[in-house]
Amino acid sequence: MLESYGHDVTRFTRMNDSMSGAGALANARKTIWNHGIADEIRDVVNSKQIDVVHFHNTFPAMSPAAIKSAHDAGAATVLTLHNSRILCPKAVCFRDGQPCTACVTKSFATPAIRHACFHENRLASGVVAVKNWLHRSRKTYQRSLNLAIAPTEFVKKRYEDSGHPMPPIVVKPHFVESDLPLGEGDGGYALFVGRLSEEKGLKVLLDAWDRLTQPIPLKIIGDGPLQHLLDVPQENVEYLGRLDQDAVYRTMADAAILILPSHCAESFGRVVVEAFACGTPVVCANQGGQAELVHPGVGALFESGNASELASVVDRFVENAEETIAMRDAARSEFVSKYTAEINHAQLLDIYHQALILRGRTDLSRLTDPDLRVDPKHARTPSHSGSSTRDSQHANLPLNQSSTFANDNAPESEQSHDTESMRGHDELGRRASSGSPLG
Fold first, then answer.
1. Do residues 156 and 28 both lie within one domain?
2. CATH number where 262 lies
3. What is the pLDDT of residues 357-399, one digit of tens each?
4. Number of domain units in the chain
5. Which of 6, 38, 73, 276 has a CA positioned 20 to 30 A from the CA of residue 121?
6. pTM of the predicted protein model
């Protein structure tokens, strides 16, 4: 996104498979503090005179050493809080089919070790717990970051209430592109798009569909460990499997409503914004960051985990078809007013501006002077598909702001339907398969 607006972006990406083949002890050490990555980050910041380093994920291959190194090299530093990994070794605050915040306020995540929360492995969970404890004790994030970005007020409050020493936290939602198909809901069906897993509420959804008094077809897109529940035919339920993104959006545009029954407290809820972009109202569980996005006029909330209440809400949408149709314009307006790339770009520049001031930088001309920018039509179109290489990627555009984006391509599984992709957030890069600190 930044490149398309003419900014000079240097991408610094390390795939987690770069840790494969190393011994367990070596990987554990790198997860806690990776000296090699710290040296690389310092060299990039110095050689390219980087102004802002925006981190999206440093776990496990980079480690928080990357953040401290960028800060020590003189750059302003920003971190997007995509999940709760700093507070919860599992990252999603969900265990045994229920929300869990047992470790969020603890200095040391003993419950995570006891329950083997990370990769169902106590030793690996212990490594992550030690990492979190060490950097909490050293105040690494508070001392080495100028700002942190939360995608919702929910995430901001969770971190602020945790007691973990953090920098100032600002709220900036993610965005999606504006070219999604705008539909009329002509398909007349409800739609679920997401991972077929316990935390995404599939069981609650299927239970609710058995309770409807005003039947409406349900289409389900996705795959996951609970896919077997869809092997048994259920009236008015059609399983479409995993579809390519264009097909997902077409199906979304034709849906009367989108259902988001997740009873894991999501950090954001990108699928909600995608639905709004298509003009589709959303019925959403009333917890987590996703619940902040849905309000009367563009959708409705129901009590998380309550199949009866979900069925009642869906029945009301079916009974009041004209009101549901009228919501489509409001849903699209909600997207246009809050979640476009143009709005996100302005918000992000303001955050970088704040970070530079907090860093003690007074000359902001490289960030703010439009005369120093490359015309966007001559800028390289950014790729959101990530890279399969472990080398740095550089977008060498000669314009006003030099910034670097640091990503470990690891999944942080609070997001949803396209196997943890980060398309259209302010980040560049794609989350790949999960890496373990023990190899």
1. yes
2. 3.40.50.2000
3. 999 987 766 666 554 443 433 333 333 333 222 233 222 222 2
4. 2
5. 38
6. 0.85
